[in-house]
Amino acid sequence: AVQANGHAAGVMVTASHNPKEYNGYKVYWGNGCQIIPPHDEGIASAIEANLALWERPSAEAVAAGEVPGVFDSLPSVADGYYAALADGLRFRGGGKSGAASPRAPLVAYTPLHGVGGPW
What we know:
It holds the Pfam family PGM_PMM_I. By secondary structure, the protein is of the alpha+beta class.
């Protein structure tokens, strides 16, 4: 999404089946790769200099483009991402997702500690 939209950087929330204390985030630079030095140190310094909580913008304001510097990339990349993902799947019978398949894949989505979106 960072590269597709020409952004300077992006953040991805990470989590697993563990409690929220183990959740985190990954930062991606404009080249679409995870950050490396010296960018990680610059970001850490900026965080340390801004420990006071900010007022959280509403989802509606973000969706309307009313929050400078904040962009929800999901609507612009989700369809292409899912199409590429489906194109790479192999189904029983050897065909790709567009070919007739005897059985569709089964998917289980389990965001046990609530970090998943409303999917």
